């Protein structure tokens, strides 16, 4: 059993087997896993917002779905992942408030998910599985050895995708 690498909010990191990678408390944020099953190399980005182009002075690329995914992909390729092998899994993007609204700020979770999927499509990365939306936070752990994404949420069964 390797070590568990923690990724904070608006941050990203990569790991390879036998290590695993985790991020806590994904609410409206989305956890993006990029994974090369042949090299058993994975990366996780904990993104908070869908689109960096709406923000001047974007210092933190890991915060946004578009730049965060690019940065994560670059790190994996530099570490030896094969571009054509890389697949994705995503989790998070919850609607953390009880009321539904068309107000974009309140739909942030949904927009994060949409932006992430759009970006993966642009990069030609296949999305294998997702656990997104609904109204609860998630903690995720990804195991490059098996390709399993374990999703934990308070009061819910543990889920593996």
UniProtKB/TrEMBL annotation:
It comes from Anaeromicropila populeti. This is Probable chemoreceptor glutamine deamidase CheD. One of its GO terms (molecular function) is protein-glutamine glutaminase activity. The gene is cheD. Belongs to the CheD family. The keyword Zinc does not apply. It comes from the Bacteria. Its EC number is 3.5.1.44. It catalyses: L-glutaminyl-[protein] + H2O = L-glutamyl-[protein] + NH4(+). Probably deamidates glutamine residues to glutamate on methyl-accepting chemotaxis receptors (MCPs), playing an important role in chemotaxis. PANTHER family: CHEMORECEPTOR GLUTAMINE DEAMIDASE CHED-RELATED. Keywords: Chemotaxis, Hydrolase. The keyword Nucleus does not apply. GO terms for biological process: chemotaxis.
């Amino acid at each position: 059993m390797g070590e568990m690498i923690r990724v904070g909010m608006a941050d990203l990191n990569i790991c390879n087997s036998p290590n695993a990678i985790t991020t806590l408390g994904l609410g409206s944020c989305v956890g993006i896993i990029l994974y090369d099953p042949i090299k058993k190399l994975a990366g996780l980005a904990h993104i908070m917002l869908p689109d960096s182009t709406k923000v001047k002075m974007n210092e933190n690329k890991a915060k946004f779905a578009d730049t965060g995914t690019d940065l994560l992909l670059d790190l994996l390729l530099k570490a030896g992942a094969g571009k054509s092998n890389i697949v994705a899994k995503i989790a998070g993007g919850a609607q953390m408030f009880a009321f539904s609204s068309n107000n974009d700020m309140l739909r942030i979770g949904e927009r994060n998910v949409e932006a992430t999927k759009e970006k993966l499509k642009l990069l030609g990365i296949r999305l294998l599985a997702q656990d997104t939306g609904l109204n609860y936070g998630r903690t995720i752990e990804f195991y490059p050895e098996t390709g399993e994404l374990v999703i934990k949420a308070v009061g819910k069964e543990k889920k593996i995708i």
